[in-house]
Amino acid sequence: DTEVTQTPKHLVMGMTNKKSLKCEQHMGHRAMYWYKQKAKKPPELMFVYSYEKLSINESVPSRFSPECPNSSLLNLHLHALQPEDSALYLCASSIRQGAYEQYFGPGTRLTVT
Amino acid sequence: KQEVTQIPAALSVPEGENLVLNCSFTDSAIYNLQWFRQDPGKGLTSLLLIQSSQREQTSGRLNASLDKSSGRSTLYIAASQPGDSATYLCAVRTSGTYKYIFGTGTRLKVLA
Question: 3-class SS at A65?
């Protein structure tokens, strides 16, 4: 099973809402990633978790809060977002952090109103 | 700072044609390079991963080559099909970092 799943597929939220994005993989991968992709742009790395610990934070605003409760699950908690945060949020995983193939999920399309 | 460029930005070809997509990077000290395809509004599908010690990788109708010294990779698609229509992205992991830098992609349209 080489699948990374993400829920929900679409999310619309107001600027005062709190919501969460979920990502799951059952490939035994120990590195998981959050990316943000704006329309017609390449993905940009946000966070990396390695063995359930936050390894990299690419200077992401604190209104985005990642969490890795176990080796299969990655969450992204959202609070007080801005309209410019509307984007496709992609989750990925790899065997370990490093020079390994990354597998991506289908993404969550987020719209902030 | 690593910069990754993909040319052309868009490409239309008739079905059955063989084609080459290009990826250039400025820092040749890389761990690996990965090619992806992305359908509109969807996630990325991994196509091929080339480690820095490899010169090429093949999967079905796809062949990716890597020339580190010149900072280039090419993705060759044989006998293109309408189902190959998508955006193709290359991503480079530079030595000493854990971050993939993505190119801006080539939007491919294969006409039936």
Answer: strand
Least confident of A64-73, A78-87, B29-38, B92-101: B92-101
Residue linked to tokens 């030595």: B95
Q: In this structure, are residues B35 and B44 in contact, taking their beta carbons and an 8 Å threshold?
A: no
Q: Is B104–A42 a contact, with Cβ atoms under 8 angstroms apart?
A: yes
**B99 touching A (Cβ < 8 Å):** yes
Secondary structure tally for chain B: helices H, strands E: 0, 11
| pLDDT tens digit sequence for A17-74 | 999 999 999 999 999 999 999 998 999 999 999 999 999 999 999 999 999 999 999 9
SS3 B1: coil
**Strand, helix or coil for residue A98:** coil
When pLDDT is averaged across residues B11-32 and rounded to a whole number, the result is 95
Sequence-ordered list of residues with C-beta below 8 angstroms from that of A75, at least 6 positions apart, any chain? A20, A21, A22, A23, A66, A67, A68, A69
Say if residue B8 is preceded by a cis peptide, omega within 30 of 0. Answer: yes
Within 10 A of A55 (CB to CB), how many other CB atoms are there?
A: 14
CA A23 vs. chain centroid, Å, equals 7
- CA gap B10, B8 in Å, rounded: 5
* DSSP β-ladder status, A87-94 and A108-112: antiparallel
Using an 8 Å CB-CB cutoff, list chain A residues near B89: 42-43
Tell me, yes or no, if A10 comes closer than 8 A to chain B by beta carbon: no
pLDDT for A1: 59
